[in-house]
Amino acid sequence: MISSHSEPRPSDLGDVRTANRAVVLRHVRRHAPCSRADIAAHTGLNKATVSSLVGELIERRLLRETGLTENRVGRPATMLVLDGAPYAALGMQIAADELVVVAVDLAGTRLLTWRRAFAAPTSSPAETVRALAALARRAITRLTGQDRRVLGLTVGVPGLVDADGAVPRATALGWREVPLAADLRAALREPGLTVDVDTDANLAVLAEHRHGAYAGTAHLVHLTGGASVGAGIVAGGRLLRGGRGFAGEIGHLTLDPAGPACGCGRRGCLVAYAGLPAVVGRLLPDTQQDGPVTDFLPEIERIQALARQGDPGVLAGLADVGCRLGHAASVLANLLNPQAVVVGGHFATLAPWLLPAARTEFAARTHAPTSGGCLLDASTLDSAATALGGATASLAAVESGRLPAA
């Protein structure tokens, strides 16, 4: 899934052929189009091994030949690229007001992106599982109708996720001890489909690391903007999960003990200042008159329009949210020294008004803002970044060299 920034090397432990398949697939993904000789020269695998592995991967339609190139010394070489046309993987995300599903092929090409309006914070876990399963079934039907096999599904949740895919707590959803992966597997009844669950922040940083403007960055943080605020962290080219998988819970960092009440029971948490419901509630107080907001897109568009018109209250509110965001990002920068902290979701949408104040606060609070070399920037991925990361994560078994069942 996320590997080190250096070239993968062949392994002499465990299943050598599986490990070496992974070496070949990763090299082609990073350097395509490339030849068999290129693979051998850059990975240390001998030419006979590369030829055997490539033949196997072509037969299983994970690689394909694209023709000859003569722009090189010696004889023309047959070039290789990722194929994977018979396969697809799904990623899903539970957002503040919608469910999203994304499908990709092995090369990372998006095959579909679907959204369904859904008020997860006011729905029960059982209702959410039913809605996820219904949307997943539609996507699976579409993909199998294209003669593709769906290899896996990974769902991103705005909360804590343990190693079994259960959600011990998701404050933004009002969940406690929800066995989401097990419940979704039971609802789908797809014995050949791998179903996993991860945090929305972990999957978003995976998408950023693979597909975003900072793709391949060895030390990277993605801050999700939505019903919750989480930090997905890549350190040394690897996802940082922590002892129980709960790393990155920056949304409940206390910025001011006397600040606004948070759903976690404390006060002054980052999410109470900068989470999507908090931002909309503060900048558009009239939205609270008809009860909780269940569709945030029109409200974000109103905030953008008011900011463009120079509304002083909205501009001041956005600047304050930006300061809170910069404060939190500085904590991450001081602790982790990433090369970049990238903000997504509504933070990216409102970046023209958030980032100036955020960067000023970030520089003021970062111990070595110049020599530390950390950038604070907006993600170039869309609001489906978590679902895109989930689909990418679902390809992990193939990318690790394990062949799909024949």
Automatic annotation (TrEMBL):
<protein>
    <submittedName>
        <fullName>ROK family transcriptional regulator</fullName>
    </submittedName>
</protein>
<dbReference type="Pfam" id="PF00480">
    <property type="entry name" value="ROK"/>
</dbReference>
<dbReference type="InterPro" id="IPR036388">
    <property type="entry name" value="WH-like_DNA-bd_sf"/>
</dbReference>
<feature type="domain" description="HTH marR-type">
    <location>
        <begin position="20"/>
        <end position="65"/>
    </location>
</feature>
<dbReference type="InterPro" id="IPR000600">
    <property type="entry name" value="ROK"/>
</dbReference>
<dbReference type="Pfam" id="PF12802">
    <property type="entry name" value="MarR_2"/>
</dbReference>
<dbReference type="InterPro" id="IPR000835">
    <property type="entry name" value="HTH_MarR-typ"/>
</dbReference>
<dbReference type="InterPro" id="IPR043129">
    <property type="entry name" value="ATPase_NBD"/>
</dbReference>
<comment type="similarity">
    <text>Belongs to the ROK (NagC/XylR) family.</text>
</comment>
<dbReference type="InterPro" id="IPR036390">
    <property type="entry name" value="WH_DNA-bd_sf"/>
</dbReference>
